[in-house]
Amino acid sequence: MMEESKDAEAKPQANKFLSFVWELVKIAVIAFVIVAPIRYFLFQPFIVSGESMMPNLQNGNYLIIDEISYRFSEPQRGDVIVFNAGFIEGYSGQRFIKRIIGVPGETVNVSNGQVQITKDGKTTVLDEKYLPGDMKTYQDKEITLSANQYFVMGDNRQYSYDSRYWGVVPKNQVVGKASLRLLPINEIKIIK
To answer: pTM of the entire structure?
Structure first.
């Protein structure tokens, strides 16, 4: 009698456990079906590594990258982008984060601590309000951008390895636009 009652008690407990496991599996599958497309086609996380975007972005900042906007519009000057750096010798499999300075059809001229943009015969000095007032841009470079090419630089101009050294970013290497800083929590903000 005692063994029968133990068996009778064990069966409902086993059924409850299997039911619980089945529910967990269903939740995990549903979460994957919802999250995976968002993660791989719309938004993805990116952790800043290095100091090339200081003072605006610091080493260790956790960002959300918008991968969908550039399917409907073109990247613009001032956008902070993440791109695959595999086209740069020695950087296969890595991603960089930089700010777009020049867009297709423009000539970018970095000289005398300034960035000049020439388009359709008109030259203007770039007003870079996102940089600290005393920061200058050195390492002279002049380049004319073809279709689907972007000239990018880090905000920390003295310590940024960017288009001044290795050239332009092809549009097909752009992953997306940095849209939101989530960490550190006290610095959560939309990136403009």
So the answer is: 0.76
Catalytic residues: 52, 98
Q: How many folded domains does the chain comprise?
A: 1
| Selected residue with higher pLDDT from 54 and 147 | 147
55 preceded by cis ω (within 30°)? yes
Structural domain contains residue 12:
no
Phi, psi (rounded to 5 degrees) for 122: -105, 125
**What CATH number is associated with residue 84?**
2.10.109.10
pLDDT digits (tens, 9 = 90+) for 51-105: 888 888 888 898 888 888 888 999 999 999 999 998 998 899 899 999 999 999 9
Instruction: Provide the CA 85 distance to its chain's centre, in angstroms.
Output: 12
- Nearest Cα neighbor of 79 from 164, 175, 12, 8 is 175
Calculate the alpha carbon distances from 54 to 27, 160, 173, 179 in Å. Answer: 41, 10, 23, 16
